[in-house]
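Handout, tutorial session.
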Amino acid sequence: EGEGGGVQASISPLALAPQLALSGLAWCASTIAYYGIVLWPISLGDGLRLQTTLGALIELPVYVAVPLLSRRLGPRITWVIFLAFAAAVWSSLAVIGGGGAAGTAMLLAARLAGTGATTICYVASNDAFPTAARGFGVAVASCCGRVGSVLAPLIVNLMPEEGGSRMAALATLAGGGALAAFGLSRAASEAS
């Protein structure tokens, strides 16, 4: 179709607004969940190389699980599960703290959840937009994800830690992202 007409011109920007908002929030929450844990001060061993290697080994099973879960449950539900799991883990950490064996195990679980959320967001948000607007929709959502990667270090490094407030903030954001991802399907079906 030529310029100024066809399928792209038939999609109202207002019709895309719900998907853009929900998808953007879920992307932002996903990157905050991921970078929040990657930047969290956790000691997994002596030396940066060992910590980086252990962090990578924690993530590898998720890269196998995401396509399997996505095929079985669908991308949107897989995204919701990982974000909800991240919210649950950060909520638990806000209560018990990140110290000791239990805290370390919870921090590792948060790394799994954040990795899954940032891995599936591409596929899940792709499905939320009509074909003619898909590139635009995913690009806007991805930009919101970049905002999340800017906010994560501010939350982890600059927010005061009083009574688990940083962990509670990460839990709240991940929970909001799970709700946004869950609402995505409804918004997409109304706009199509």
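The second record follows below. Compare its token runs with those of the first.
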Amino acid sequence: LTQRGNIAMFQGRIQDALEYFRAAGDLHRAAGEEGRALADEVSVAQTLVYAGRATEARELLDGILARTSRAPSPSLLSWSHYIVGEAFTDADVERALAAYAAAIAHASEADCRLFETLARGSSVALACRSGAPAATLDQFDELFAQQDQVGNELVELWLLRFLVVLLERLDAADDATVLAGALLTVQDRYPSF
């Protein structure tokens, strides 16, 4: 059910995703698998965020975060904090950045590169929109170099979209325009992204 929820969420079938994640959480909890049940609750919050219902997600996340903080899994803690960051991105930049920092710390503890990459990317993306431009450019360079080594083209293209915003904020409009044009030429590779 959890994987069906993931598929539904990324296909934009929000109600289906919420139903799958809630049902999976109930089954996991009934089986005594509290960690997996909490992960399903985080998935509910993630789905709400991606559906533009961040206020609802924030209400859920306070309780979820209190319970995941007692969980022995640094990966679950990392993911929970990452989703908190996503939920607060447009409401409270400082809280979002603090949540991303916590997600990165827990991901490093678990050697969980996926959650570390997501949190670092989202943190830099948020800083591109709202942080000090020069300092953000340094963070961006570091993150992009890391992604270049990994070779994840999808993440690289996602990050480059935020570089366009940062370049504009740095009064490099010509560079921003060229990069935006280049990104438009590859948009067919990942049409739903």
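Points raised in discussion: The first helix runs from residue 2 to 10.
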